[in-house]
């Protein structure tokens, strides 16, 4: 029984240590009628059990404009940058936010505000 409790505490401590995924930088480049976003995500990926698995572009009201799925952990590549093309932004939107997701905590780490030109 003590081993089970110890193992459970170690698992919980590992999950708590990695925390949520944060966006530490993001840029937007206009390309025709859409934008190409590059986001730099930082997360203490631990392998397939706990890793940053997506980031997305949202309005201030929370409307999702585009999502980039991350298909594998980036344990030895932190922080890492990935791009997403073809994001259509309504003309009245002047700023958006980029936020990251991890497969344990979900959305909710640090967002990064991007002002559109």
Structure, explained:
Residues 1-18 form the signal peptide. Keywords: Signal. The structure is a single chain. The chain is mainly beta and 117 residues long. It has one domain (2-115): Immunoglobulins (Immunoglobulin-like), CATH 2.60.40. Helices cover 15% and strands 46% of the residues. It has one helix at residues 2-18, and strands spanning 22-31, 34-42, 52-58, 64-69, 80-87, 95-102, 106-107, 112-115. Strands 3, 4, 6, 7 and 8 form a five-stranded antiparallel sheet that branches. The longest helix is centred in the first third of the chain and has 17 residues, at 2-18. It is elongated. Mean pLDDT is 85; it is low at 4-16.
Shape: elongated
Helix coverage percent: 10-25%
In CATH terms, the superfamily is: Immunoglobulins
CATH architecture: Sandwich
CATH classification class: Mainly Beta
Number of strands: 8
Taking all residues together, what is the mean pLDDT?
85
Strand content: over 45%
Q: How many structural domains are formed by the residues? A: 1
CATH topology: Immunoglobulin-like
Distance between the termini: 60 Å
Q: Tally the helices: what do you get? A: 1
Structural key phrases:
single chain, mainly beta, 3-stranded antiparallel β-sheet, 8 strands, elongated, signal
């Amino acid at each position: 029984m003590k081993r089970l409790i110890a193992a459970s505490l170690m698992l919980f401590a590992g999950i708590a240590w990695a925390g949520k995924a944060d966006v530490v930088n993001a840029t937007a480049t206009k390309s025709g009628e859409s934008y190409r976003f590059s986001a730099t995500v930082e997360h203490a990926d631990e392998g397939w059990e706990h890793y940053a698995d997506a980031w997305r572009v949202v309005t201030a009201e929370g409307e999702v404009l585009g999502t980039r799925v991350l298909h594998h952990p980036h344990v030895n590549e932190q922080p890492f940058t990935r791009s997403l093309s073809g994001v259509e932004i309504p003309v009245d939107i002047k700023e958006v936010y980029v936020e990251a997701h991890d497969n344990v905590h979900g959305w909710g780490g640090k967002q990064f505000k991007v002002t559109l030109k």
